[in-house]
Amino acid sequence: MKSKLMSRRDLDFLLFEWLRVDELLKRPRFAHHSSDTFADVLTLCEELAEHHFAPHYKRSDVEEPTVEGGVVSVLPDVKDALRAFADTELLAMSLDEQYGGAQVPVVVSTAAFAWFQAANVSTLGYSLLTLANANLLIEFATEDQIAAYIPPMLAGRFTGTMCLSEPQAGSSLSDITTRAVPQDDGTYRLFGSKMWISAGDHDASENIVHLVLARVPGSPRGTKGISLFIVPKFLVAEDGSLGERNDVVAAGLNHKMGQRGLTNAALNFGDGTFEPGGTSGAVGYLVGELNHGLAYMFHMMNEARLIVGAAATALGYTGYLKSLDYARTRPQGRPLAAKDPDMEPVSIIEHPDVKRMLLAQKSYVEGALALVLYCARLTDLTAAAETPEERRDATELLDLLTPITKSWPSQWCVAANDLAIQIHGGYGYTREYDLEQLYRDNRLNPIHEGTHGIQSLDLLGRKVRQHGGAGLTLLEQEVTTTIARATAFGGEPAQLGERLQASWQTLRDVTTVLLSCGDPTVALANSALYLEAFGHIVVAWLWLDQVLAAHGRDDAFYVGKRYAARYFYRYELPKTHAQLEFLATLDSTTVEATFDGWDA
Q: How far is CA 306 from CA 395, 405, 423, 544, in A?
């Protein structure tokens, strides 16, 4: 029986036929693996997701984490699933061998983790946050800090978080006020509050390792004065055992519309609930240098943004598969041309409008999955580059695509979930089916790790212009190469290539107009629209590249790929023309608008 979580056939196509991950085996970092190893990892994750994560998906939505006597408790099923996950040592599979990893390519681990994200995105959230936390520490922490925290984190005994936002500041990190006061022993004592902390408190692990942004007295104002600290829930002794409870406590849990199995906490640091060593404040340990905290945290934030894009994709994908199955098995209505009232109803998949909704979903979720895996492969190229130039180029391209890979799936895979509900009709918004929960779970992702607005400012305000537009130039080379290959194929690929060329050139022209505008407020006012158009054109490129990989093959799977690409080019890509035309006018409506008295 085919899984309705993810499509193994599509994952195999994207990994082995399109991205050709077997070519990574020629690089020393991955040479001890094989294509069979990669396939086995996918199989293991599919089985584990089906048996340990999917069964409590609906239960974890209903039976949310609770707070009693200051103790935050999660569903026992969540703990069981995390233990089963930890026992397989999958969390560390892409890390360096020196840290206990297996050096599996990130593109393979990303595809493998998609099974868990589709099965139960909340439960996997505890582990993936821990992985991103561990990767930051490996990059910037001291050897002693790595020795104290990384092994228990990768073993599943400790979990990790990222603590950035504060109640009064939200996403404006320049306005954070949490203080870190230096002590004579080289530690710091932290005082302040953090908000919206996923996995911020729970009883699913022995300890929680918080990475906290804070200011040391006397540091510069704004983001240049932010430092990064390790603040564990329990202090860790030299022998690795747990010591005193640190003064970081959950002030409460935020009750979300979705992903309810993953705790989301408001945390207080140094409020006097606990006083380690009889001294006030939460004990913290500086990571790296003072006042470099935001730069370090971006290492985790960018990884988290890619994780959000992958999670949105997985949730959209499983919703598509479930609505496809429903459409095949739900009899209702008759063909439009049918005149005989005694004719048996047909499955709703026979109706053109249902086909439209299924094609839209397929084009969104399979396009998003291609985008996520393409960026994961870029991560592998940065880690296993054969030349400094290759590493530089992969880094530039990944930097450019990161805001798109976070935001495009979290916009359009939510749209896919919306269409999946529509296909189910009245059943779609009932709790009998998974669709309404999938939609609620996915609706968080446009906000997680920076809203569309923040990602669009990053893309247009920074990424397209940094290093003289190097990332944009590299992307153009990739797009142009695909178009040239499509032209050589002739037929429909060449026609799609012509459309992509026109869209890309318009994007380049409009980008020049926006970057040349003397008023940055006006230039960036509609950056969210720019992000949406840019993302659509990038996904159109990836669809054309998939069509080329499927060219000349005529079984149903490849036919489906071509139909999805055709849909995207005929229904979706044309939308960017109007968007880009509008952006070129440098419209200032949103700059000029005021809302005083409008609600009178």
A: 14, 6, 29, 22
Instruction: Tell me the pLDDT of the chain averaged across its residues.
Output: 96
3-class state of residue 291 by DSSP: coil
Q: Which of 449, 492, 498, 532 is catalytic?
A: 449
- Residue 296: the pLDDT is 95
pLDDT reported for residue 174: 83
Residue 585 has a CB neighbour count (10 Å cut-off) of 10
Q: Residue 103 — φ and ψ, nearest 5°?
A: 55, 40
Whether 272 and 205 have beta carbons less than 8 Å apart is answered as no
The DSSP bridge pattern shows strands 158-163 and 207-214 to be: parallel
164 residue type, one letter = L
Query: Among candidates 96, 90, 132, which has minimal Cα distance to 111?
Result: 90
CB 229 within 8 A of CB 180: yes
The answer to whether 269 touches 188, Cβ cutoff 8 Å, is: no
| Cα 376 to Cα 370: distance, rounded to the nearest angstrom | 10
**Residue 531: C-alpha distances to residues 136, 401, 406, 520, 581 (Å):** 27, 10, 11, 16, 14
Report the share of the chain in percent with pLDDT over 70. 100
Terminal CA-CA length for the chain: 59
pLDDT tens-digit profile of 451-507?
Answer: 999 999 999 999 999 999 999 999 999 999 999 999 999 999 999 999 999 999 999
User: Quick check: 424 and 433 in contact, CB under 8 A?
Assistant: yes
CB atoms within 10 A of CB 466: 14
Run of H or E including 159:
strand 158-163
Going by C-alpha positions, the residue among 268, 257, 136, 138 that lies closest to residue 197 is 268
Contact criterion met (CB below 8 Å) for 376 and 356: no
Weakest-pLDDT range from 75-79, 131-135, 338-342, 565-569: 338-342
Residue 449 among the catalytic residues = yes
Alpha carbons 347 and 364: distance in angstroms, whole number: 23
| pTM exceeds cut of 0.85 | yes
Q: Which are the contacts of 479, defined by CB distance < 8 A and separation ≥ 6? A: 500, 504, 541
Show the tokens assigned to 526: 């509609």
* Alpha-carbon span 106 to 315, nearest angstrom: 20
